[in-house]
Each structure stands twice: as C-alpha cells, then as structure tokens.
Amino acid sequence: MNNKTSSFLWNLRQLSTSVPKSRTLRQYSLGFRTPKNAHSNQKLRNLLLNYFHDRMQTSIRYLFQGPFILKSGYSVFQTKDLSNVTVFKVDRLLCSRSLSVDSTHSLVSVGTSDNGLKKVNFHHEASGEDMFTKGTKPTPVTSRKLSEECNSLCDVLDIFSKAPTFPSSNYLSAMWTIAKRMSDDQKHFEKQLMFNHPAFNQLCEQTIREAKIMHYDHLLFSLHAIVKLGVPQNTLLVQTLLRFIQERINECDERCLSILSTILEAMKPCKNVHVLRAGLWILVDQQVWKIERVFTLQTVMKYIGKDTPVALKRKLEMKALKELDRFSVLNSQRMFEVLAAMNHRSVILLNECSKMVIDNIHGCPFKILISILQSCKDLRYQNLDLFKGIADYVATTFEIWKLKQVLFLLLLFENFGFRHVGLMDLFMKKIVEEPSFLSLRSIVPILHVYSSLNHFCDSQDREFLEIMASALTGCLHHISSENLLNAICSFCVINYFPLAPVNQLFQKNVINELLTSGDIERNVHKLHIVDTCLKLDDTPYQKAKDISLPQQPSPPPRPNAEITEALTSLLGGEGYFSKDVQLPHNYHIDFEIRMDTNRSQVLSFSDIDVTSATNMQRVAVLCVPRSVYCLDSNHPRGFFAVKMRHLNAMGFHVILVNKWELEKLKMEDAVTFLKTKIYSVEALPSADANLQ
Predict the structure, then answer these.
(1) Which SMART domains does the record cross-reference, listed alphabetically (predicted)?
(2) Of 408, 410, 336, nearest to 378 (Cα)?
(3) At 656, phi and psi to the nearest 5?
(4) Which of 239, 595, 616, 662 has its CA 20 to 30 A from that of 19?
C-alpha cells in the first residue's frame, strides 16, 4: 500500500508540473478543439482520487480492417488495409499514467496471423515496477543533452529504458538530431536497430499516452521526428498523433505554424493529412497578419503547398512585401526558393530581393547561387541584372571555384539563354589549360552550352574544339548512342566535324538503336540536323546521304498579317513576294523576295525568265521572336544560327524582322522599317522614289 501511495503522489506532482491546470477539451464545429477555462484545484484532486480508487481503465477504440504487419527483410512497421483511426474519447483527464494498460493485456503485441504474417502492436511488457510508478522522480533530460551525449539511436533508447521521463518528444527529437549527422548507409542500419530495440515499443506507447497532455509544440516535434525516422505513415502511432494535432490545432501559435507546415510537407497524402492541411490553411489565413518573425513567415510559405488557394498565396505575398524592410540578406536569398516551393511568381517581391542579392553578392555560397538560379528557372523569372551580377562575381573570383561548379552555373544560364562572354571565355581558357578535367560526364554538357549559346572566342575556339574532339574520341568505346548523337549534333552546330565520332555515329547498329529506343522523336530531329549539316556545310563527309531517316512533319504556317500588309504597301502588291515558303531540308521561311544582285530593285514572281536569270538575289524574310536570340541581345542562338548559315549556303540573303519591335510601330513606320531592312544602303534613295 505504501508503494501505491508513493506512486500516486509522484504522479500527482508529475501532472502538476507537466499539464496545464485541468485542461479539458470541447468539440468545435470544424472538428478542432481548444482549451476551456481551468477548473479548480479541488476538482483536479477529486478527479485523481476517483482514478486511484476505481483504477480506471482507459477506453480507446481503434477502427481497422486488417492487422499490423511487420514485413520480413525490413525492420519497419507497415499496415494492411488500415482505415482511419477514430478520435480518442477519454472521459477523464489524462496524465502520464492514466492511459497505461493492464499488465495482463498488451496494447501492442507481436504474433503470427493465419496467413503467416507478423502482427505488430505497440506493447508494454509487465514488470514488477511500472516505469511511471517508481518512488523517485527521474532526472529530467532534454533533447539537446541527449543528442550531445549519445552517438546512436539505440543509445537514446537505452537511456529511455532505464529512466523514462516526460515528455517523450525529447527522446524522439534527439534520435532525429543524431540521425541527421549520419551517412545514408549508417542511417539505414541504425534505423533497423532502432525498430528491433525492445525500448522502441515502449517509447511509442508512451508517446501515444502523452499525446493528449504534452504541450502542442512537443506533440508536433514528436510527429516530425517519427516521420523523419521512417515510421510508416499508415501506422496507429502516426495516425493517432495526426488526429490529436488536428483536434488541438487551435493551440497552434506562430512557432507551431512553421513546425506543422514542415511536417505536412514531409508526409504523403492521406485523409488525415488532407484534413489537417485544410485546417492549416484556415489557421494561416486567420493569423497571417500576426506573424512577427520573417523566418516563420518564409517557412510557412515554403511548406504550405503548391495547391494552396491563390487568395491565400496572395495574402502571404502581401505580408512578405510588408516585411521587406526587415529582410536580412539571408531572407532575400531564401525568398526565391520559398516562392518556387509555393509555385507563386511574385515579380515585385523577386525584383526587390534581387536587388539585395546583387548588392551583397560577394561571399555568397555556391549552394545559394544554384538555389536562386534554379528557383528563377522554376518560376520562369528572368532578371538580367541578377544573372549578370552572379556571373560577374563568379568571373571575378574564378580561381576559387571548381570547374564542375562553373559548369553547373553555365548550364543554368543556358536555360535562360544568358550568355556571359567573360565567364565563358575564362572557362574555355581553363579547359585548354587543364584538359584532364574532361570526362564523359562533362564533355556533352560543355558542348551543349557552347553550341546552344553560339559562343566562340576567336583566339581559342580552334584549340578548344580540338581538345573537346580528342576527349570525345577517347570515350567512344563506352559512350552511349544518345550521348554520342548529342555530342555530334553540338559539334555540327558549331560547324566542326571530328572524324572518328562522326564515323561511329553512322554505323548501322548505332543508327538502328537511335531509331528504335529512347526518345525516338528527339533522336530523329537531331539526326536530321546532323544530316543537313553534313550536306550543306563545307565538309568532306557524305555518309549521311546513305542513311534513310523518317520524314519530319512540316512546321505549321505562322500568320503575319501586319507584315504582309506592310510588304504589300512597300513592294506594290503581293505579286512581288511569296508567303510561307517551304525549302529543302525542312526549312521554312516567312517571306521570299526576289531582287537584283544590288538589292535595289524588286522582281516580280510572274516573270518566267527571272528564275533563270544570273543576276537575281533571293531574299528570305524571317519574322522571329525573342527566343531565337540570347537574353537581351541580338546574338542568335545555336540552331537559329545554323538555319541562317544554311539559308546563306542555299543562296539566300537573310533579313531578320523582330516581331516585338514591329508590333509597336504604326503602319507607316512599319513600311519604313522594312524598307531599310530589304533595300541596300546604296539603293535606299531609289527605293524612296519607287515608294512615292
């Protein structure tokens, strides 16, 4: 009897220090719960006395369609046909002991079902002395202290098994902190040991018992650690914590908002997660203007989900704009990733953060630079000043960067069509000086960047191309057919044709593999480019003529009504030009004009003898969008430069008309603009007379 009395008094002290005064919960219409006003201490004592007298057994009901299963070969929990866990209904206030089960029953047990599968339930082994009925209060521990003193997950469980203390979240958080320090292989091995450790079941049981009484942030930390440690989401433990978090969501403060957002982002979709996420949206919508810390705001924005209602995204955007004056450099750098994670393109916010990033670019880590550029790509956001600031910084500090880091940046710049001449020249020079850097993993990306951006340095391009060709030749015995095609296509765009790689590409087995596997449509397109380059460019290779390739579909005609009207006004009628002309090798031009060799007089298409005239100049008018140029320049990109080169080889004089410039002009100005483009400088006075 003395032992029981001592146990009761210790429980009473434990409850008074760990639980708010007699907190009871009431159901709200949305399914959430919030604390009522505290009852008197006398009522709390009566409740505990009734519990001690009646030896209350907690009634907890579970709703399942199948048993828990422990899959052999993996020491992790899984379930079979698990349905939603019902809300815990507890008639009396819960304390650390009030949910303990009778020693003759086990809350969780391990056995074998009729089909031979192992059943797993969290159990509490009966012992002479319950871990919460000891006469002395265990020494309090913190997650930080545990993570500093322990080197493995099992070390934490060993400490827990000797003297468990409230709350259990300290042990779970410490285990996740330790796991983060481990390599992937070590983490996998430690998790297996953790699941097989006998104290892990006891820790899970204690977490379930404490779920209703521990502080809300501790409850969130518990679920976060459990999910990160790899406990399957469809287990009773995880679903129970989800339901308690849902019920008590009105207790969520600013700190808890960021934790809850992080948890939901890490979890797979299910009914309880969906309901909790909807509750989070409602809560954030109500509390967004009360958030004080920028870090909390950005965490909520990052993890709230891409499917968040647009109205809530805009509300968060307005809150971030309101806090701009309080943004640190790190906050501005992080904002790009936050908006990309939320899938919300706020140009105003991105512009302001870009200014701060540019002003504080020196010392910015490589990881952050990559994150900023990747986020800009995901958001389809282009800021020339930002890209130039990053490229200038890397070019200025070029010697401190690894070549693979610079290559990664160049690949991201290529996605935007951004060509930084200084940085690309430095990288080319470094490759010439250190060709040992080249490998199969770097050759193809380097060729892709330089061919796509149509970049050459006159003093080094020949030596650079020879080194790249030599490195590619050395990899021919183990290169894949697609990588070989990509490399040769890049060389052809650059107008360079290495002998050995080209010969290997046109072997029958390589061609057959490209036409029957992988991305066949893409392979056919690139083979046509190589075939056209070998036929039209100045090269001795003619093997492409012997290769039969599938016919590519003709590009659809593009309407250019405004330019048609301007040309009709300028040239005197539609008989002096032709629209939507299809040429050999699947090339298409918007307009063809026939002129004399001095480009001073336009010739009519109705004149039959014109086609045989030797003094005729064919003019190709191409109406082009911004995408054919490098970002914010008139430097043509790779494939468009090849088209211009091949049109010249077919005898055309190429005239480029920028659509976005012509659309801004009135008809009279558009006619004058086309006149200066079509006629030669010497012929402009006579063209003016003809126009009059």
Answers:
(1) RAP (SM00952)
(2) 336
(3) -100, 130
(4) 239
Strand, helix or coil for residue 84 = coil
The dihedrals phi and psi of 301, each to the nearest 5 degrees, come to -65, -40
For 422-438, give the DSSP string.
Answer: HHHHHHHHHHHH-GGG-
**What pLDDT is stored for residue 537 in this prediction?**
82
Residue 613: its pLDDT value, please?
Answer: 57
Q: Is 184 exposed, middle or buried (0-12, 13-18, 19+ CB in 10 A)?
A: exposed
Nearest-angstrom CA–CA distance, 178 and 164: 19
Please classify residue 476 by burial: count the beta carbons closer than 10 Å to its beta carbon, then call 0-12 exposed, 13-18 middle and 19+ buried.
Answer: middle
Print burial letters for 654-678: b (CB count within 10 Å at least 16), e (below 16).
ebbbbeeebeeeeeeebbbbbbeeb
Please name the amino acid found at residue 410.
L
**In Å, how far are 21, 315, 427, 453 from 437, measured between CA atoms?**
68, 49, 11, 22
**312 in helix, strand or coil?**
helix
- The answer to whether the CB of 437 falls within 8 A of the CB of 403 is yes
Residue 174 makes CB contacts below 8 A (sequence gap 6+) with 143, 144, 146, 147, 150, 156
Phi and psi at residue 654, in whole multiples of 5°? -95, 130
DSSP class of residue 629?
A: B
Expressed in percent and rounded to 5, the helix, strand and coil fractions of the chain are 60, 10, 35
- The alpha carbon of 653 is separated from its chain's Cα centroid by a whole number of angstroms, namely 45
* Averaged pLDDT of the chain: 79
Distance CA(276)–CA(34), nearest Å, equals 15
613: phi then psi, degrees, rounded to nearest 5: -70, 140
Find the DSSP H helices in 498-606.
Answer: 499-505, 508-516, 520-536, 561-571
Report d(CA 501, CA 136) in Å as an integer: 80
Buried-exposed string 391-403: b where 16+ CB fall within 10 A, e elsewhere: bebbbeebeebeb
3-class DSSP state for residue 94? coil
Query: How far is it, in rounded angstroms, from Cα 414 to Cα 370?
Result: 13
How far is the C-alpha of 204 from the C-alpha of 274, rounded, in Å?
24
Q: What is the DSSP string of 210-249?
A: HTTTS-HHHHHHHHHHHHHTT--TTSHHHHHHHHHHHHTG
Query: CA 562, CA 70: separation in Å to the nearest integer?
Result: 71
Q: At what angle are helices 254-266 and 294-303 packed, to 10 degrees?
A: 30
User: Is 469:427 a contact under the CB 8 Å cutoff?
Assistant: no
Cis peptide before 167 (omega within 30 of 0): yes
| pLDDT tens digits, one per residue of 210-234 | 998 999 999 999 999 999 999 999 9
Which of 319-323, 431-435, 542-546: highest mean pLDDT? 319-323
* Rounded distance between C-alpha atoms, residue 177 and residue 511, angstroms: 53
Q: What amino acid is encoded at 219 in this protein?
A: L
Name beta bridge partners: 652.
618
CA 285/CA 530 separation, integer angstroms: 56
Distance spanning both ends of the chain, measured CA to CA: 119
pLDDT tier, 526 (very low <50, low <70, confident <90, very high otherwise)? very high
Answer yes or no: is pLDDT of 236 > 60.
yes
- CA atoms lying within 13 Å on the CB side of residue 447: 30
Q: How far apart are CA 13 and CA 134, in angstroms?
A: 13
pLDDT surpassing 60 at residue 126: no
pLDDT higher than 60, residue 75: no
pTM equals 0.76
